[in-house]
Fold this protein.
Amino acid sequence: MDFDDIICELEELSDDDFAENMKRFGIRYVKSYGLRLPQIRKIAKGCGKDHELASRLWNHGYHETYLLATLVEEPEKVTSAQLNDWVKSFYSWDLVDQACINLLRFIPQARDRIFVWCSAEEEFVKRTAFSLIAVLAVHEKGADFDKYFDILKEGSKDNRNFVKKSVNWAIRQIGKSNLENNRKAIELSHDMLEIDNKSSKWVAQNALKELESDKVQKKLAKSTSQ
């Protein structure tokens, strides 16, 4: 499927009502066709991986073409300049999270940039750092995430909604990856409770509620015994 075919399909599937409804979930955009994520993923399957196509889709400037670009991009062809340009262009929580899931976790230099993005002033650049940690924890359950604990603790102090929620997501996913990481994530959360910061306490309390639950503890114990 080439670029023109994709745009034609997006136009045919466009749904103004759904585009408007997206705003209720905090999804910000300048232009949108109003497609649901499963529809976007279906289109992406017909495209394969194509670096040039990803670039054209990104430059088209619609919410759906940004998402499609993260799905069809070839990770090994992403340059440092492109990576920085794309991340600095992020404007919505769902674009950040989908980029981390679809693309950034496959790019080694993106992992290195976590320690830069975590200190960014821009809300969605900063969210990228913590969302990427969360995604890595989902897909690399045996990994050691201790190196991120200091920036998670510092990031928890940021009261901006889309930052603190991504910090919380990262801690919860680390804590659900294996029994040892669960112990460490719980200890980290208790440390955060000692911080004199409302946002840090919210992050910690929300994480502990899930990580100390019987459901999570039983699941981790079962996976360890297998």
In short: DSSP finds 14 helices and no strands in the chain. The radius of gyration is 19 Å. The longest helix spans residues 123-139.
